[in-house]
Amino acid sequence: PTRVLTGITTSGTPHLGNYAGAIRPAVAASHVPGVESFYFLADYHALIKVQDPARVQRSTLEIAATWLACGLEPDKVWFYRQSDIPEIPELTWLLTCVAGKGILNRAHAYKAAVDKNRAEGEDDDAAINAGLFMYPVLMAADILLFNAHKVPVGRDQVQHIEMARDFGQRFNHLYGEHFTLPEAVIEAQVATLPGLDGRKMSKSYDNTIPLFAPRPTLKKLIASIVTDSRAPGEAKDADSSNVFALYQAFATPAETAAMRAAFERGIGWGDAKQALFERIDAELAPQRERYEALMAKPAEIEAILRDGAQRLRVAHATPLLARLREAVGLRDLS
Ligand code: TYM
After folding, report:
1. Nearest alpha carbon, ligand 1 atom 22
2. Motif 'HIGH' region: where (predicted)?
3. What is the pLDDT of residue 153?
4. Which of 18, 40, 82 to mutate to test the pocket of ligand 1 (most atoms within 8 A of CB)?
5. For residue range 102-129, what is the model confidence (pLDDT) as tens digits?
6. Is the CB of residue 202 below 6 angstroms from any atom belonging to ligand 1?
7. ipTM, 2 decimals?
8. What domains are defined for the chain?
9. Distance 293 CA to ligand 1 centre (A)
10. Could you tell me if 309 and 84 are in contact, meaning their C-beta atoms sit under 8 angstroms apart?
11. Which ranges of the chain have pLDDT less than 70?
12. pLDDT of residue 189
Protein backbone atom coordinates (compact mmCIF):
# COMPACT_ATOMS: atom_id res chain seq x y z
CA PRO A 1 0.00 0.00 0.00
CA THR A 2 0.97 3.65 -0.47
CA ARG A 3 2.06 5.10 2.85
CA VAL A 4 0.89 8.66 3.57
CA LEU A 5 2.35 10.49 6.57
CA THR A 6 1.96 13.95 8.04
CA GLY A 7 2.37 15.76 11.34
CA ILE A 8 1.41 18.99 13.06
CA THR A 9 3.62 20.80 15.56
CA THR A 10 2.00 21.07 18.98
CA SER A 11 2.92 24.70 19.51
CA GLY A 12 -0.54 26.28 19.58
CA THR A 13 -4.21 26.02 18.70
CA PRO A 14 -4.90 24.45 15.28
CA HIS A 15 -6.08 26.95 12.65
CA LEU A 16 -7.81 26.96 9.27
CA GLY A 17 -4.45 26.70 7.48
CA ASN A 18 -3.56 23.47 9.31
CA TYR A 19 -6.99 22.12 8.48
CA ALA A 20 -7.08 22.97 4.77
CA GLY A 21 -3.37 22.38 4.20
CA ALA A 22 -2.91 19.17 6.17
CA ILE A 23 -5.78 17.68 8.17
CA ARG A 24 -8.58 17.66 5.60
CA PRO A 25 -6.51 16.18 2.74
CA ALA A 26 -4.93 13.66 5.13
CA VAL A 27 -8.24 12.41 6.51
CA ALA A 28 -9.64 12.17 2.95
CA ALA A 29 -6.59 10.17 1.84
CA SER A 30 -6.99 7.80 4.78
CA HIS A 31 -10.34 6.63 3.40
CA VAL A 32 -8.87 5.67 0.02
CA PRO A 33 -8.44 1.89 -0.29
CA GLY A 34 -4.85 0.74 -0.51
CA VAL A 35 -3.50 3.64 1.58
CA GLU A 36 -1.75 3.18 4.94
CA SER A 37 -1.81 6.46 6.85
CA PHE A 38 0.48 7.83 9.58
CA TYR A 39 -0.68 10.98 11.41
CA PHE A 40 1.17 12.32 14.38
CA LEU A 41 1.62 15.13 16.87
CA ALA A 42 5.06 16.68 16.43
CA ASP A 43 5.70 17.53 20.08
CA TYR A 44 9.51 17.31 19.89
CA HIS A 45 9.32 19.92 17.13
CA ALA A 46 7.21 22.14 19.40
CA LEU A 47 10.06 22.45 21.93
CA ILE A 48 12.09 24.42 19.39
CA LYS A 49 9.67 27.31 19.64
CA VAL A 50 7.69 26.82 22.83
CA GLN A 51 9.36 26.50 26.20
CA ASP A 52 6.11 26.67 28.11
CA PRO A 53 5.24 23.11 29.27
CA ALA A 54 1.55 23.82 29.89
CA ARG A 55 1.19 25.23 26.41
CA VAL A 56 2.82 22.20 24.77
CA GLN A 57 0.53 19.88 26.72
CA ARG A 58 -2.61 21.90 25.94
CA SER A 59 -1.73 22.11 22.27
CA THR A 60 -1.10 18.36 22.10
CA LEU A 61 -4.57 17.72 23.47
CA GLU A 62 -6.17 20.28 21.12
CA ILE A 63 -4.47 18.91 18.04
CA ALA A 64 -5.22 15.29 18.94
CA ALA A 65 -8.89 16.18 19.53
CA THR A 66 -8.91 18.02 16.20
CA TRP A 67 -7.68 15.03 14.22
CA LEU A 68 -10.28 12.80 15.86
CA ALA A 69 -13.08 15.36 15.43
CA CYS A 70 -12.20 15.67 11.74
CA GLY A 71 -12.88 12.01 11.12
CA LEU A 72 -9.61 10.23 11.71
CA GLU A 73 -10.26 6.64 12.77
CA PRO A 74 -7.53 5.54 15.18
CA ASP A 75 -8.14 1.85 14.56
CA LYS A 76 -7.73 2.27 10.79
CA VAL A 77 -4.71 4.61 10.66
CA TRP A 78 -1.54 5.00 12.69
CA PHE A 79 -2.18 7.91 15.06
CA TYR A 80 0.52 8.76 17.58
CA ARG A 81 2.63 11.29 19.43
CA GLN A 82 6.20 11.76 18.20
CA SER A 83 7.68 11.67 21.70
CA ASP A 84 6.15 8.22 22.34
CA ILE A 85 8.43 6.75 19.65
CA PRO A 86 12.03 6.77 20.97
CA GLU A 87 13.20 5.39 17.61
CA ILE A 88 12.56 8.84 16.11
CA PRO A 89 15.30 10.67 18.07
CA GLU A 90 17.52 7.63 17.60
CA LEU A 91 17.14 7.79 13.83
CA THR A 92 17.62 11.55 14.01
CA TRP A 93 21.17 10.96 15.18
CA LEU A 94 21.92 8.42 12.44
CA LEU A 95 20.68 10.95 9.88
CA THR A 96 22.51 13.85 11.53
CA CYS A 97 25.73 12.04 10.73
CA VAL A 98 24.96 11.90 7.00
CA ALA A 99 23.19 15.28 6.67
CA GLY A 100 25.19 18.03 4.98
CA LYS A 101 25.59 21.01 7.29
CA GLY A 102 25.57 23.25 4.21
CA ILE A 103 22.08 22.01 3.37
CA LEU A 104 20.85 22.85 6.86
CA ASN A 105 22.39 26.31 6.52
CA ARG A 106 19.98 26.89 3.63
CA ALA A 107 16.78 25.83 5.44
CA HIS A 108 14.20 28.64 5.16
CA ALA A 109 13.29 28.78 8.85
CA TYR A 110 16.91 28.94 9.98
CA LYS A 111 17.85 31.46 7.29
CA ALA A 112 14.92 33.68 8.22
CA ALA A 113 16.09 33.70 11.85
CA VAL A 114 19.63 34.63 10.77
CA ASP A 115 18.33 37.38 8.47
CA LYS A 116 16.28 38.80 11.33
CA ASN A 117 19.36 38.88 13.56
CA ARG A 118 21.35 40.65 10.82
CA ALA A 119 18.59 43.21 10.30
CA GLU A 120 18.70 43.93 14.03
CA GLY A 121 22.49 44.23 14.08
CA GLU A 122 22.94 41.08 16.20
CA ASP A 123 25.35 38.18 15.67
CA ASP A 124 24.08 35.78 13.00
CA ASP A 125 23.15 33.04 15.45
CA ALA A 126 22.09 35.17 18.41
CA ALA A 127 19.26 33.50 20.38
CA ILE A 128 18.90 30.71 17.80
CA ASN A 129 18.78 27.28 19.45
CA ALA A 130 20.45 24.32 17.76
CA GLY A 131 17.02 22.66 17.61
CA LEU A 132 15.94 25.17 14.97
CA PHE A 133 19.02 24.34 12.94
CA MET A 134 18.41 20.58 13.27
CA TYR A 135 14.67 20.82 12.65
CA PRO A 136 14.84 19.32 9.12
CA VAL A 137 16.79 16.28 10.36
CA LEU A 138 14.20 15.48 13.03
CA MET A 139 11.50 15.89 10.41
CA ALA A 140 13.37 13.60 8.01
CA ALA A 141 13.48 10.95 10.76
CA ASP A 142 9.68 11.28 11.21
CA ILE A 143 9.20 10.55 7.54
CA LEU A 144 11.95 8.04 6.77
CA LEU A 145 11.34 5.86 9.84
CA PHE A 146 8.01 4.80 8.33
CA ASN A 147 9.16 4.75 4.71
CA ALA A 148 6.38 7.14 3.75
CA HIS A 149 5.76 7.60 0.03
CA LYS A 150 3.62 10.72 0.25
CA VAL A 151 3.62 13.62 2.66
CA PRO A 152 0.63 15.97 2.34
CA VAL A 153 1.71 19.42 3.54
CA GLY A 154 1.37 23.12 2.86
CA ARG A 155 3.90 24.77 0.56
CA ASP A 156 5.99 25.99 3.52
CA GLN A 157 7.07 22.40 4.24
CA VAL A 158 8.20 21.38 0.76
CA GLN A 159 11.84 22.25 1.33
CA HIS A 160 11.89 20.03 4.42
CA ILE A 161 10.64 17.09 2.41
CA GLU A 162 13.29 17.67 -0.23
CA MET A 163 15.85 17.59 2.57
CA ALA A 164 14.40 14.32 3.86
CA ARG A 165 14.89 12.86 0.37
CA ASP A 166 18.44 14.12 0.33
CA PHE A 167 19.34 12.65 3.73
CA GLY A 168 17.58 9.37 2.87
CA GLN A 169 19.44 9.14 -0.42
CA ARG A 170 22.80 9.73 1.23
CA PHE A 171 22.06 7.09 3.84
CA ASN A 172 20.96 4.59 1.16
CA HIS A 173 24.09 5.34 -0.84
CA LEU A 174 26.34 4.65 2.15
CA TYR A 175 24.52 1.78 3.83
CA GLY A 176 22.17 0.13 1.30
CA GLU A 177 18.56 0.72 0.24
CA HIS A 178 16.83 1.18 3.59
CA PHE A 179 14.66 4.20 2.91
CA THR A 180 11.86 5.08 0.51
CA LEU A 181 12.32 8.62 -0.78
CA PRO A 182 9.21 10.65 0.09
CA GLU A 183 7.28 13.08 -2.08
CA ALA A 184 5.39 16.18 -0.95
CA VAL A 185 1.72 16.36 -1.88
CA ILE A 186 0.19 19.83 -2.09
CA GLU A 187 -3.47 20.62 -2.74
CA ALA A 188 -3.20 23.21 -5.48
CA GLN A 189 -6.17 25.40 -4.55
CA VAL A 190 -5.22 25.65 -0.87
CA ALA A 191 -1.44 25.66 -1.10
CA THR A 192 -1.03 28.54 1.36
CA LEU A 193 -4.02 29.94 3.19
CA PRO A 194 -3.67 33.62 4.03
CA GLY A 195 -4.29 34.86 7.56
CA LEU A 196 -6.25 37.90 8.71
CA ASP A 197 -3.55 40.31 7.52
CA GLY A 198 -2.94 38.63 4.15
CA ARG A 199 0.37 37.02 5.11
CA LYS A 200 0.50 33.23 5.37
CA MET A 201 -1.80 32.09 8.19
CA SER A 202 0.64 31.17 10.92
CA LYS A 203 0.91 30.89 14.69
CA SER A 204 4.10 32.95 14.42
CA TYR A 205 2.31 35.92 12.80
CA ASP A 206 -0.60 35.94 15.23
CA ASN A 207 -2.98 36.22 12.27
CA THR A 208 -4.80 32.90 12.56
CA ILE A 209 -8.44 31.90 12.60
CA PRO A 210 -8.64 29.05 15.14
CA LEU A 211 -10.28 26.04 13.51
CA PHE A 212 -12.90 25.58 16.20
CA ALA A 213 -13.42 29.14 17.37
CA PRO A 214 -16.97 29.53 18.72
CA ARG A 215 -19.37 30.82 16.03
CA PRO A 216 -19.48 34.49 17.22
CA THR A 217 -15.65 34.60 17.38
CA LEU A 218 -15.40 33.07 13.91
CA LYS A 219 -17.73 35.73 12.60
CA LYS A 220 -15.81 38.55 14.27
CA LEU A 221 -12.47 37.28 13.00
CA ILE A 222 -13.75 36.94 9.44
CA ALA A 223 -15.09 40.51 9.64
CA SER A 224 -11.55 41.65 10.52
CA ILE A 225 -9.88 40.15 7.40
CA VAL A 226 -7.98 42.90 5.58
CA THR A 227 -9.50 43.97 2.23
CA ASP A 228 -8.95 46.85 -0.17
CA SER A 229 -11.26 49.85 0.07
CA ARG A 230 -13.39 49.22 -3.00
CA ALA A 231 -17.04 50.06 -2.34
CA PRO A 232 -20.04 47.81 -3.03
CA GLY A 233 -20.80 47.95 -6.78
CA GLU A 234 -17.13 48.36 -7.73
CA ALA A 235 -15.59 45.32 -9.44
CA LYS A 236 -13.14 43.45 -7.18
CA ASP A 237 -10.07 41.39 -8.01
CA ALA A 238 -10.65 37.86 -6.77
CA ASP A 239 -7.07 36.72 -7.30
CA SER A 240 -5.55 39.27 -4.94
CA SER A 241 -8.27 38.94 -2.27
CA ASN A 242 -7.75 37.11 1.01
CA VAL A 243 -11.48 36.70 1.41
CA PHE A 244 -11.64 34.95 -1.95
CA ALA A 245 -8.62 32.75 -1.22
CA LEU A 246 -10.23 31.53 1.99
CA TYR A 247 -13.60 31.06 0.31
CA GLN A 248 -12.03 28.96 -2.41
CA ALA A 249 -10.48 26.63 0.16
CA PHE A 250 -13.93 25.82 1.58
CA ALA A 251 -16.16 25.89 -1.50
CA THR A 252 -16.87 23.57 -4.42
CA PRO A 253 -15.53 24.61 -7.84
CA ALA A 254 -19.06 25.71 -8.85
CA GLU A 255 -19.45 27.87 -5.72
CA THR A 256 -16.01 29.33 -6.32
CA ALA A 257 -16.88 30.22 -9.92
CA ALA A 258 -20.09 31.89 -8.71
CA MET A 259 -18.14 33.89 -6.12
CA ARG A 260 -15.63 34.96 -8.78
CA ALA A 261 -18.54 36.26 -10.87
CA ALA A 262 -19.92 38.08 -7.81
CA PHE A 263 -16.53 39.76 -7.29
CA GLU A 264 -16.60 40.95 -10.91
CA ARG A 265 -20.13 42.30 -10.40
CA GLY A 266 -18.94 44.22 -7.34
CA ILE A 267 -20.22 42.26 -4.31
CA GLY A 268 -19.72 44.33 -1.14
CA TRP A 269 -17.00 43.18 1.32
CA GLY A 270 -19.61 42.70 4.04
CA ASP A 271 -21.61 40.32 1.86
CA ALA A 272 -18.51 38.44 0.69
CA LYS A 273 -17.42 37.96 4.29
CA GLN A 274 -20.90 36.81 5.30
CA ALA A 275 -20.79 34.18 2.52
CA LEU A 276 -17.34 33.09 3.68
CA PHE A 277 -18.52 32.79 7.28
CA GLU A 278 -21.52 30.68 6.24
CA ARG A 279 -19.40 28.41 4.07
CA ILE A 280 -16.81 27.75 6.78
CA ASP A 281 -19.38 27.37 9.51
CA ALA A 282 -21.38 24.89 7.43
CA GLU A 283 -18.31 22.71 6.93
CA LEU A 284 -17.03 22.92 10.50
CA ALA A 285 -20.14 22.92 12.72
CA PRO A 286 -20.47 19.12 13.12
CA GLN A 287 -16.75 18.74 13.73
CA ARG A 288 -16.78 21.59 16.27
CA GLU A 289 -19.36 19.73 18.27
CA ARG A 290 -17.31 16.53 18.28
CA TYR A 291 -14.20 18.54 19.18
CA GLU A 292 -15.83 20.04 22.24
CA ALA A 293 -16.96 16.60 23.43
CA LEU A 294 -13.46 15.16 22.94
CA MET A 295 -11.74 18.01 24.78
CA ALA A 296 -13.68 16.95 27.87
CA LYS A 297 -12.11 13.44 27.73
CA PRO A 298 -8.33 13.82 27.85
CA ALA A 299 -7.83 10.35 29.40
CA GLU A 300 -9.49 8.71 26.40
CA ILE A 301 -7.28 10.62 24.02
CA GLU A 302 -4.19 9.72 26.03
CA ALA A 303 -5.12 6.02 25.83
CA ILE A 304 -5.64 6.24 22.05
CA LEU A 305 -2.23 7.88 21.53
CA ARG A 306 -0.34 5.43 23.73
CA ASP A 307 -1.95 2.45 22.12
CA GLY A 308 -1.14 3.81 18.64
CA ALA A 309 2.52 4.39 19.47
CA GLN A 310 2.94 1.01 21.12
CA ARG A 311 1.52 -0.91 18.16
CA LEU A 312 3.48 1.19 15.68
CA ARG A 313 6.76 0.57 17.46
CA VAL A 314 6.24 -3.16 17.37
CA ALA A 315 5.06 -3.21 13.74
CA HIS A 316 7.53 -0.77 12.18
CA ALA A 317 9.85 1.35 14.28
CA THR A 318 11.70 -1.18 16.42
CA PRO A 319 12.47 -3.69 13.64
CA LEU A 320 13.62 -0.95 11.23
CA LEU A 321 15.91 0.61 13.83
CA ALA A 322 17.42 -2.79 14.53
CA ARG A 323 18.25 -3.15 10.82
CA LEU A 324 19.68 0.36 10.64
CA ARG A 325 21.87 -0.11 13.70
CA GLU A 326 23.22 -3.28 12.14
CA ALA A 327 23.76 -1.50 8.80
CA VAL A 328 25.83 1.34 10.25
CA GLY A 329 27.99 -0.94 12.43
CA LEU A 330 26.34 -0.61 15.84
CA ARG A 331 26.56 -4.37 16.12
CA ASP A 332 26.60 -7.30 18.44
CA LEU A 333 30.29 -8.07 19.05
CA SER A 334 29.95 -11.80 19.51
P1 TYM B 1 2.95 23.06 11.20
O2 TYM B 1 2.52 22.58 12.53
O3 TYM B 1 3.51 24.42 11.07
O4 TYM B 1 1.74 22.96 10.22
C5 TYM B 1 1.00 21.73 10.08
C6 TYM B 1 0.52 21.60 8.66
O7 TYM B 1 -0.31 22.69 8.31
C8 TYM B 1 0.18 23.28 7.12
N9 TYM B 1 -0.06 24.72 7.18
C10 TYM B 1 -0.70 25.40 6.24
N11 TYM B 1 -1.27 25.01 5.08
C12 TYM B 1 -1.85 25.94 4.33
N13 TYM B 1 -1.90 27.27 4.68
C14 TYM B 1 -1.35 27.69 5.84
N15 TYM B 1 -1.42 28.98 6.16
C16 TYM B 1 -0.69 26.75 6.68
N17 TYM B 1 -0.05 26.83 7.88
C18 TYM B 1 0.32 25.58 8.17
C19 TYM B 1 1.68 22.98 7.11
O20 TYM B 1 2.20 23.05 5.81
C21 TYM B 1 1.69 21.59 7.64
O22 TYM B 1 1.39 20.65 6.63
N23 TYM B 1 7.27 20.69 10.47
C24 TYM B 1 5.82 20.54 10.40
C25 TYM B 1 5.35 19.38 11.26
C26 TYM B 1 6.04 18.13 10.94
C27 TYM B 1 5.82 17.28 9.82
C28 TYM B 1 6.73 16.21 9.98
C29 TYM B 1 5.00 17.37 8.71
C30 TYM B 1 6.99 17.54 11.73
N31 TYM B 1 7.39 16.39 11.15
C32 TYM B 1 6.78 15.17 9.04
C33 TYM B 1 5.06 16.32 7.78
C34 TYM B 1 5.94 15.27 7.94
C35 TYM B 1 5.19 21.81 10.91
O36 TYM B 1 5.72 22.54 11.69
O37 TYM B 1 3.92 22.00 10.50
Report:
1. 153
2. 10-18
3. 85
4. 18
5. 999 999 999 999 999 999 999 999 999 9
6. yes
7. 0.98
8. 2-193+297-328 (3.40.50.620), 212-292 (1.10.240.10)
9. 25
10. yes
11. 189
12. 66
